[in-house]
Amino acid sequence: MKLSQLLPRVIAGAALFISILSCSENLDSSGVCPVLCPTLGGKVTNVIIDGAIAIDTTVPVTSGLGSEPGLLLANRGDTLDTRVILRFDTLPQKFTPVSDTARPITSVDSAYILLRVDTLHIVGPGPVTIEAYDVDTTADDTATAAVLALFRPDRFISSQTFARADLKDSTKYYISNATVLSKLQNGLPLRIGLRATGAASSQMVMTSNEFGLPPTLFFRATPDTTTKPLTVNLYSKTPADNRIVAFNLYDYTIFAKSPPAAPPGTLAVGGFPPRRTYVRFVVPSSIIDSATIIRATLLLNQIPNPALDPTDTIKVLPQIVLAGPAVTDPVKAAQIVGTISSDTLMLRPGDSGERSVELAGAFTLWHNIPADTLPRAIILKTVTEGNSPLEIRFSSSEDVVAALRPRLRISYTTKVPLGLP
Q1: What is the mean pLDDT of the chain?
Q2: For the chain, what percent of residues have pLDDT higher than 90?
Q3: What is the phi/psi pair of residue 174, to 5°?
Q4: Mean pLDDT over residues 246-269, rounded?
Q5: Where are the domains of the chain?
Q6: Which residues contact 29 (CB under 8 A, 6 or more apart)?
Q7: Integer angstrom CA distances of residue 383 from 118, 152, 177, 315
Q8: Mind listing the pLDDT tens digit for each residue in 105-145?
Q9: b/e code 342-381 from CB counts within 10 Å (16+ = b)
Q10: Whole-number Å distance between alpha carbons of 225 and 90
Q11: Which end of the chain is more exposed for a tag (fewer CB within 10 A), N or C?
């Protein structure tokens, strides 16, 4: 079905959902708002469907290397080690002094990269040393192992140590003037790999090109401090045959070490590299098609994950899967999603117990769109997907303890409000 055919039905469904939601705080509708909330009528039935889960599984986020909105630079010992790659493939070879003609660049002075740091989510008291390496290579652009191998002494460019207080929203990271000059004079790309080191654990997120505030290179073409610095933006010439991939690779994060993966049969949300939980339901048509859903809740059992920052809080968001029935692979289907609610779950990785995911918005859409057009599926993702290594874990339908498996709780009535009396 085309989007133009779906849209009116989706809007109508959303309007019905809002109408019901405004009355759902008092299910007996005992005259609290007789005009705006006509009596639902009929008995409200509450059921818990243990066998409502057709499929639940953990899937990777496949948006592609470099498509994340932030750049994660972390040194967390044996638990997490990530590097940031910046590509400046087009360096200027000439500059024009004020009231003069263009001339070749023969010197570089005060070269630095301006990094936009998310100061609210820095981990570690500092200090932290950031090392820069030359990671230019002819290897395949997505061969991260080949790039990691270039973080070695003969590729070292420079380093700078920051106290915690020195890490600002806009932080200047100074690099070797000689390296920049050599690259531009020889017409070579300047591809820099950043690595965090130091005795203390450290972690920070910098905004990326996808976010709109990318790292930027500045330098003066003369030691004269009165001259205006030249500005060089991120750019990748490769792969030449795929400009979308090349755009993503302007800047990106790679990991040398990542936290242990969740055990088999466990549902995972977040982490690094990021993961989502995909859930597809089987709900009786007598409920989803013919009844008015007052409330729908997915009940999950959270499993403690002590691997990394177990007491920190992370937001988990449910989204509806918009992939049609032709997309049978959960990995692919989980990438085609839409918003059903702005409500998020505030969870800590180290906690445990029952968690409730509200899905009334999804059921409203499913009521108005046939299952052969829109499968009954959702995903769970973190709001900071790709920027945070924190991972939330849940029991799956494979759990040996039946009481810990996901369940669906629904409150519904078979009487549908007809509108204003």
Answers
A1: 87
A2: 64
A3: -80, 135
A4: 92
A5: 3-62+261-413, 81-257
A6: 23, 37, 38, 39, 40
A7: 15, 35, 39, 6
A8: 999 999 999 999 999 889 998 799 999 999 999 999 989 99
A9: eeebebbbeeeeebebebbbbbbbbbbbeeeebbbbbbbb
A10: 24
A11: C
SS3 category, 333: helix
Per-state percent for the chain, helix, strand, coil, to nearest 5: 15, 35, 50
Judge whether residue 265 has pLDDT over 60.
yes
What's the count of helices (H) and strands (E) in the chain, helices before strands? 7, 25
Query: Which of 342, 352, 346, 365 lies closest to 296, judged by CA?
Result: 365
Residue 22, token pair as written in the block: 């405004």
When computed from its CA atoms, the radius of gyration of the chain, rounded to whole angstroms, is: 27
The Cβ-side half-sphere exposure at 124, using a 13 Å CA radius, reads 24
> Residue 248's CB: how many other CB atoms inside 10 A?
22
CB-based contacts of 182, cutoff 8 Å, min separation 6: 188
CA max distance for the chain: 85
Q: How far is CA 413 from the centre of its chain?
A: 37
Residue 387 has pLDDT above 50, yes or no: yes
- Residue 16: its pLDDT value, please? 45
Question: What's the rounded Cα separation, in Å, for the pair 30 and 39?
Answer: 8
Of 264, 268, 263, nearest in space to 382 by CA: 268
Sign of CA dihedral 171, 176, 182, 188: negative
Q: Which two tokens stand for residue 162?
A: 């920051």
Nearest-angstrom CA–CA distance, 110 and 126: 25
The residue among 310, 254, 313, 294 whose CA lies nearest residue 72 is 254
Q: Is the peptide bond between 273 and the residue preceding it cis, with omega within 30 degrees of 0?
A: yes
Average pLDDT over residues 181-186: 96
Task: Report in angstroms the alpha-carbon separations of 155 from 38, 121, 151, 177, 186.
Answer: 72, 30, 7, 15, 17
According to the model, what pLDDT value does residue 175 have? 96
- The residue with greater pLDDT, 330 or 50, is 330
Q: For residues 32 and 53, what is the distance between their CA atoms, to the nearest angstrom?
A: 37
Per DSSP, what are the bridge partners of residue 49? Answer: 408
